[in-house]
Structure formats: structure tokens, C-alpha cells
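Hey all, quick one. A colleague (J.T.) asked me to put the 2-keto-D-gluconic acid job into the tracker so the inputs and the C-alpha cells live in one place instead of scattered across chat threads. No bug as far as I know, just bookkeeping. Sequence used:
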Amino acid sequence: MRPDILVLGALTSPHMLQQLEAGFTCHHAWRLPAAEQEAFIASVAGKARAVVTNGGLGISRELIAQLPAIEIIAVNGIGVDAVPFDATRARGIAVTNTPGVLTDDVADLGVLLLMAAARRLPWLDSYVRRGDWDAKKPIAPALSLRGKVAGIFGFGRIGQAISHRLAAFGMRLCYYQPNPVAGTDVERVGSLHELAERCDYLVVAAPGGERTRHSIDGSILDALGPTGTLVNIARGSVVDEAALIAALTEGRLGAAALDVFEDEPHVPEALRALPNVVLTPHVASLTVETRQAMGQLVVDNLLAHFAGKPLPTPVA
Ligand code: 8YV
């Protein structure tokens, strides 16, 4: 009998979808309008032996409690901050994620956002579209990246991949995270506050969750200052969004480039109205190749689990 799986997060890889459909009886909650999902989930809850979800969505403690047959939660993403591990541990539920395969694309988007903010790409694009070039309206020059300091908060695989890319642009680098990283030439500074004081671009690549919640608060943004730029490709929860909006609106922070938000997909109107902000809708890993590789890991973990084999990428 094919195991029943409950799919919560949108599946963006057709290849993954095909393989899931071939090996399992899939119940696709994500295809339904939000208002219909609860009743649908309740109707299949008794038989779901696996859940497929994504990094941002995770799974709630309440939903886990609703699933008597659940054995494994396969997260289609690297971040597992939205998975309640006390609940999974208590029930012996396995959790897997997709490490490694998304590092390059997420790092690329981090650099793209940093450069888009530095060179004011959205403003320039609309300048041309609006016909301001024909009208010979003035353009203020941007600032060069060469010689500027990028401070990376969170120096795991993605943070390090961002640093390699930015080094190639002639930027100086430093990082902060609680545990020093071995085997890197990049300097670790003593605190997040010091990192923000030292850098021109503060790039958030730290995991989400309670430990990092609102780490980037008003005092960190003030340390970054009116010429500083915040880039976030990690989790919206790491940044106090209200403090960020206040700092940008009051000119205490120069600019921000954000792929992630506190209450996705809701992006506060105040943020959307600011000209010195670049916004993308949580798409750092959204490329054909990476989503296929992530999807393959999800499928491989599920197949291994139901075949009684070791999981390729379990979360410890
Ligand atoms: C995805 C992510 O957007 O990996 C993560 O933690 O947030 C992203 O790569 C998400 O998991 C969609 O599948």
C-alpha cells in the first residue's frame, strides 16, 4: 500500500510532484484556497504518515497533534525554525530538510539584493520606464562597492558563500555568529552590535527561530546607521520589522533589501511605500535547478524512510 502523505507547501518542481505522485497517495492541501484547507486536512488527518512542507511554513504543534499516524516531516528547504522539535521528539517523528543544494542560489540572491540596493536598481528601472531619461531628469550617482565592508550575520554555508562572492567585488568582509568558524580568513567580530558598527552592508544569513528572533533591533539598525544597508535572505523573524520601518522612515538607516518578512506573504504598506527598499517575495531558492534538487532530497528522504533505510538528510 502506498503511504498517504499530506502536502502543505506549494510544490514548485514538476519532477518532484511526479515522483511523489508515483510513490505515494498525495493529499495536496496547498492547492486549495486557504479557507478550505482546514477541513481538507481534517478529512485526511487520520491516515497521513508523512507531511511535506516548506521552510517558511513548517508545521504547527496543533497540526502534529491532529495527525495520529505521522512518522516523518520532510521540509522542502534548509530552515527548520518553523518545526516544533519538542513535539516531534516526543512522538519520535523524523524531520528532514534540504541542506547544501540551495546554498549557491540563495547566496546569489543575497548578492543581487545587496547590489540592487547599492546601485538603486529598482529606481533606475522605473526611471527609464517612466520616460525620465527622455525628460533628462537628474540621476544622483550611487556609491561603489569596492572597499566597502560587508558584515555577515550567520556564517554557515550560505553566509560563507555570500562572503566569497562579495570578496570578488573588492569588498572587505567580517562576520558574527556566536561560535567561531574554523578554516576561514574572514574576521569574526565580538558581537552583532560591533558587526553593525563596522560594516556598510549588514547581510543576515542566520537561522530563524527563538534564538535569533529580533536580533536585528533598533539599536543594531542605529549602529548600522544612515549610510548603512540591511540585506535579509534568511528569515523575517530575525529582524524587528517595526523597528526597521521606523529606522528607514526616520532616515536613521540608509536602505534595505529584503527577501523575507515577519508575516509572509504580508509586507507592510509602510515598507512597500519606501523608495530606498528592494523587495522580493521569498524566492532565494526559487530556480528550476535548485527546486528540482531540493525536491529530489525530499523524495529520497521519504522513499528511504518507508523502505526502512537511513535518511539521506535528517535534521539532528
Ligand atoms: C524556501 C527556505 O522558500 O530553505 C528555506 O529555508 O525558506 C526556502 O528555500 C522554502 O522552503 C520553499 O520550499
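Adding what we noticed when we looked at it: The pocket of 2-keto-D-gluconic acid is lined by residues 9, 54-56, 76-79, 102, 282, 285 (CB under 6 Å). The longest strand covers residues 48-54.
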